[in-house]
Amino acid sequence: MSINTNKKNYQPLPESYKKSFPFSLGTTSFIYPDDYIPNAEMLGTYVDELELLVFESKWPDSIPSIQTVERLKITGREYDLKYNIHLPTDVCLTDMDIKAREHAAEILSLVIERTAPLCPSTYTLHLPFYPGSDNENEIRKRLDNAYKGIEKLLLTGIKSSLISVETLDYPFEWIKPVVYDLNLSICMDIGHLFLYNFDPVSFYDKYCNKISIIHLHGVRDKCDHISLEKLSQERMQIVMKILGSFKKTVSLEVFSYKNLATSLALLDRKINQNP
């Protein structure tokens, strides 16, 4: 299927990687400096899945409109393109303020309901703990807030395992109870694990049966979400070890054409060409 690039002079990827890997290959809706639909149309021929980034919720057009979702649904059928959703990060279910938590539950529920027609493979959720929250009492309070907030999200009718809790800057054990008790899944962000000095292999070995999506990106000098080319050889070997047995969704979570193109080429060489 050819892509009409007459309206936008965007550079297409040099080759298609659709159905090229043992896992479902995805990337983000921020590759081209445009909205969801142009990114879906530009990338649909080249990847299996698109991670729709709904990072913000405060602007009138932050959440995809009903019309946008319908167009994305049509585009998905035309290009055999699936979707996963990254839920807003500017609202927080673990906030200590009850009004903030209630607002977060409302916004997150709206995004889940709005994008449900796309049948996403997962909804990735941040459950932050903030600096100074590493004492037992603080962890317990935020964990309790997470239970209550996610229970509200489940009122939308979403299957609990479609909510994937992302690895952030704190030990995953802090949030593990809510993941297991409510039968959620895990978004393993390998870049975050590298960035915050956690062991990705140990994490994968421990939680592989719960992981529904892996976020993959380069990390160097405390900078993440860059090309995989920026990973050290040792870290790339770790990535390959993990991907060797993973069969679900891997999203190259980068935000530019260059970072995506170089990451795809490296991943293809490592997995399919065995250099």
From TrEMBL:
The molecular function terms in GO held by this entry are: isomerase activity
Check the record and name the InterPro entries matching this protein.
Answer: Xyl_isomerase-like_sf
At the top level of its lineage, which domain of life is listed?
Bacteria
Which key words tag this protein in UniProt?
Isomerase
Q: NCBIfam families from the entry?
A: coba_remo_CbiR (NF041277)
Protein name in UniProt: Xylose isomerase domain-containing protein
